[in-house]
Specification:
about 230 residues; seven-stranded parallel beta sheet; globular
Length: about 230
């Protein structure tokens, strides 16, 4: 019997780093993302998380869950739009919730009946799960919902031996952040200056935090703020 990790969004960013970390820690790793994960040894199931999972993907996931000692589900896939209260569109809000909230909830519903004791569900939220900044409305609102989804899931799993947590990263050096600021080095430097360590977080640092949550059920229902200490102005 072996350990299995199912990581959404593992083709890039935090999910990619998490797949690498958990593979090193002895997990068999499945990536669930639109694009293939290039980490050697990771099994890639390609799927658009805005849509219901195809029957063959569902079957593969359930078959792979059989006879496992421990299963970790890591909801790392995310979608960020540069929208605001003045510019929000129904399409953007729907997509943000589809990727950031609905997909994790439905994947949980599929897999929870197959999770053995000592399993875990870790959600990758954001600093914006508890506050907001200008120009990221749909992302911030959906990440607030992710925090609620984690806590509600914790309550529903009481007594099951399965624990949950949210890791809420601060400004992390990912393609999603770089795209959001137009790959402008001056903006990225300005963002880094708002952190007490004066740098961006590396995806591997968040992956290590996720791995800690998987191995420590004492944090059940907790939100772990992993942001290097943001300077509040």
């Amino acid at each position: 019997m072996s350990k299995l990790a199912i990581v959404t969004g593992a083709s890039t960013g935090i999910g990619h780093a998490t797949a690498h970390t958990l593979l090193r820690d002895g997990f068999d790793v499945i990536s669930l993302a639109r694009r293939r994960c290039d980490v050697p040894g990771v099994v890639s199931l390609q799927a658009d998380l805005t849509e219901p999972l195809a029957a063959d993907v569902r079957t593969t996931l359930l078959d792979t869950c059989k006879d496992r000692q421990q299963i970790a589900i890591v909801h790392s896939a995310g979608w960020l739009a540069g929208d605001s209260a003045q510019s929000i569109s129904l399409e953007a809000l729907d997509r943000a919730f589809a990727v950031n909230v609905t997909a994790p909830a439905m994947l949980n519903a599929l897999l929870i009946p197959h999770l053995p004791v000592s399993s875990s569900i870790v959600f990758v939220s954001s600093t914006l799960g508890t506050k907001a900044v200008p120009g990221a409305l749909s992302y911030a609102v959906s990440k607030h919902a992710v925090d609620g989804l984690m806590q509600a899931t914790c309550q529903d799993l009481a007594g099951s031996g399965v624990h949950t947590a949210c890791v809420a990263p601060g400004f992390t050096n990912t393609q999603m952040l770089r795209d959001h600021v137009g790959n402008d080095p001056q903006i990225l430097a300005g963002i880094a200056s708002g952190v007490t360590f004066n740098r961006l977080i590396e995806p591997a640092e968040i992956a290590a935090t996720i791995a800690f949550c998987i191995d420590n059920p004492v944090i059940n229902g907790a939100i772990i703020h992993a942001n290097l200490g943001q300077i509040e102005r």
